[in-house]
Amino acid sequence: QALEEAQKAIQQLFGKIKDIKDKAEKSEQMVKEITRDIKQLDHAKRHLTTSITTLNHLHMLAGGVDSLEAMTRRRQYGEVANLLQGVVNVLEHFNKYMGIPQIRQLSERVKAAQNELGQQILADFEEAFPSQGTKRPGGPSNVLRDACLVANVLDPRIKQEIIKKFIKQHLSEYLVLFQENQDVAWLDKIDRRYAWIKRQLVDYEEKYGRMFPQEWCMTERIAVEFCHVTRAELAKIMRTRAKEIEVKLLLFAIQRTTNFEGLLAKRFSGCTLADGTVKKPEVPPPSTNPFLEDETGAETDEIVIEKSDTDKPKKPKVPDNPFHGIVSKCFEPHLYVYIESQDKNLGELIDRFVADFKAQGPPKPNVDEGGAVLPSCADLFVYYKKCMVQCSQLSTGEPMIALTTIFQKYLREYAWKILSGNLPKTTSSSGGLTITSLLKEKEGSEVAKFTLEELCLICSILSTAEYCLATTQQLEEKLKEKVDASLVERINLTGEMDTFSIVISNSIQLLVQDLDAACDPALTAMSKMQWQNVEHVGDQSPYVTSVILHIKQNVPIIRDNLASTRKYFTQFCIKFANSFIPKFINHLFKCKPISMVGAEQLLLDTHSLKMVLLDLPSIGSQVVRKAPASYTKIVVKGMTRAEMILKVVMAPHEPPVVFVDNYIKLLADCSTDTFQKILDMKGLKRSEQSSMLDLFRQRLPAPPSGVENAGSLSLSAPTPEQESSRIRKLEKLIKKRL
């Protein structure tokens, strides 16, 4: 029963659903019928609106064309300007209806009216400003002012024709006054050209300023056309009279011309130069360096090299003067006169530097202020900066490349004539030096190869060369900024920078050779001492005292004079260590034979020299600085080798196997020559040496790890028992002395 009731309920539900579906279909059909009428009404409304609008436009067009033709005949340009623009705008709505004859006819009438207006306006301007004769007295009329407004709406060629004819007529007097055969046309009277155009522009503003629309920029157009004409006329007359051009005359004309171009930039925006007939040069970013300053810094007497982070070169900005070069471009083909003049002037400047140096002599030593840069260096780069600024104002093309070549020539001459040419010669030492005099511990400037003045001169030349090197690099960067982008690759001062680097290297080498040579007699004395006869270990030997004396005499002077160039003082220390230590070891090998006590004395001397060398960068200074790690590493490595050689010499050669293994462990040197020298120092007989060498060769293939790690052994490496007591005794002696 329940099932039957459920089935009946389902049947009833299906019936209701069917009824709802039928009603929905009827409703949908009804909505379609209603909206069909609404859509038709919408389409009708839109079509009707379009038709009314089009008919209104047609009415406006037809009436406008009739009025336009009538006003044109009556020259009512004021009304025509507004009407014509409206007619043209309305006509645009009928572009899709041009197939209709009536519309096409109206369009043709508009075009005919435009052509007629154009010809009529040109005729009016021709009548008011005839090509031949003077301008019509009384100034411009309102008719012409309104005609310009009409020309704005007409074909752009009409406007260009009006502008062209007016400017040509306005400059006709200029072409007559400054003809090539006239006296005022030459460069020495170039001021008169610019004075003439200034008067003309003032006259134009008073008489015709209101006639032409402001957006035409007629004043600027007249000035620009004047510049083009002037550039062509000046180029022609300079080609004809090229032999008469002198440097002063050329620079005078260029200066007056660039001043005039600057005046134009202040007065006009340069909007009429949009087509780009004038190249816009680049301007430098600000900096404290003379090659990165603005023009006002050209007269400074000193050049500052250091640059802060904010002064790093930036991308050049577009200049404020769009008129740069619009006239002065014509002088570029004749700038060879300027370049030749600078070549001559720089040659005379270098000669004067040489003469002044000979007359005044080397700079006086003044260790309190550090090594002084030669004043001629600053003078040279200030002159370079002045030349570069001048030339970049004249041209950024080939003349800049020619000037760069001149710069390169005289940078090299300065490096060789002023710097290298004045370095003291190594053969200039006065008086012979004896070992006896070297070993006397007294104040003896006579033991120094170079005098104090010569040492200061070398340091001054080194500082000057470093200054030139840094400033030349900045000069190269500045030249690349000034020159055209296409010519940047041709600016390369690497060769000149290398030249200054050579001067620096030679100066450091002279300082090293001087100190090295002063120490040579002491090392010779060391090698000639009878070390086998030394009976007891005392204080450091006289030759060590002599070496220390020379170091204390020379190094403080060099350090104080190179205070402004610490990296080169560090190079001096490193080069001296690299030169002195191998020489010391070679002389050490010459000390033969050596007794056990003699080896202990030499080890004490070696340790003393090692401590002095480690303290070399700050020796004699009130301010103690930690020596550079690179220098310390060289000294420790070299002097430790010398100490190891002496330790091997001190070790007993019996038994031979222990001696050979000890040698390999301490020195890690597989050379038989070195081993032979050790045996010579010990004073072994040839027969003993032969068997020892054979054993050494047999022991060489020992585990490679032992050889590789031998370099890491320190002074505390284990020694044979036979020498342990002597080593402990020697260490106590060293500690006591320290």
Automatic annotation (TrEMBL):
Keyword Magnesium attached: no
Domain Vps53 N-terminal: 1-357
Coiled-coil stretches: 3-44
Keywords: Coiled coil, Endosome, Golgi apparatus, Membrane, Protein transport, Transport
Subcellular location, record wording: Endosome membrane; Golgi apparatus, trans-Golgi network membrane; Recycling endosome
Domain Vps53 C-terminal: start-end pairs: 600-684
InterPro entries per the UniProt record, alphabetical: Vps53, Vps53_C, Vps53_C_sf, Vps53_N
Record membrane topology: Peripheral membrane protein
Domain of life: Eukaryota
Bias type Polar residues, positions: 711-722
Gene3D superfamilies the record matches: Vacuolar protein sorting-associated protein 53, C-terminus
Family (UniProt): Belongs to the VPS53 family.
Protein name as it appears in the record: Vacuolar protein sorting-associated protein 53 homolog
